[in-house]
Amino acid sequence: MTNSLLNLQSTSLSDERVLCAIELIWKEAAILDAKDYPAWEELFTDEAYYVVPIDPDTEDFAASLNMIYDDKRMRHLRVERMMQGYAPSAVAAARTARVVSTFVVKSVSDDEVIIRSTQVLTAFKRNSHQTLGAELTHTIALSDDGGRIAQKVARLINSEDAVSAAGFLI
User: Fold this and answer.
1) Membrane spanning segments where (predicted)?
2) CATH class for domain 3-156?
3) Section 26-53 average pLDDT
């Protein structure tokens, strides 16, 4: 690692704004593992997008094919499906455990923190385990009340391969 990267990371990780963002990301993981989907919805700003792209390198999500590209309305519909019990993803929903780590601060301002992390998600459903790895990029909008997710991008490490239906949110 170069000295400038080490300096950015050590300075950024001690920044209160960055700590607020990391705590929110961990809170999101815990809420998803608890299947508290209404609380998960509340973590997002009204304008936020939740994206799981197929192309691991794309930045133009609106013009790319995505597994998930949800605005507020679509997130709400997804949560309703997860909770109503009629959708295959909701019937005997998978139990999950997430580990989110390797935080790398991309930018920090008084209004926003952009932070990249890695996630390992283990799911158990119907006597079978599934493990997914992803690189997460969270854009956290900061306010006096703390932070909310302005954008979440989950880049699955196997996004270009066939990904089986998931009974959980990534």
Assistant:
1) none
2) alpha beta
3) 96
Which runs of E-coded beta strand occur in the chain? 44-53, 66-70, 95-108, 112-125, 128-143, 146-156
Q: Where are the domains of the chain?
A: 3-156
Q: Residue 64 and residue 33: Cα distance in Å, rounded?
A: 29
Confidence band (pLDDT; 50, 70, 90) for 17?
very high
Instruction: Please tell me the distance from the alpha carbon of residue 142 to that of residue 110, in angstroms, as a whole number.
Output: 7
User: What residues does 113 pair with on adjacent strands?
Assistant: 108, 140
- At 63-107, the pLDDT tens digits run 999 999 999 999 999 898 888 865 555 456 788 999 999 999 999
d(CA 47, CA 41): 12
The pair phi, psi for residue 82, each rounded to 5°, is: -65, -25
Supply 45's token pair. Answer: 């700003």
* CB contact set of 166 (below 8 Å; sequence gap of 6+): 89, 94, 123, 130, 132
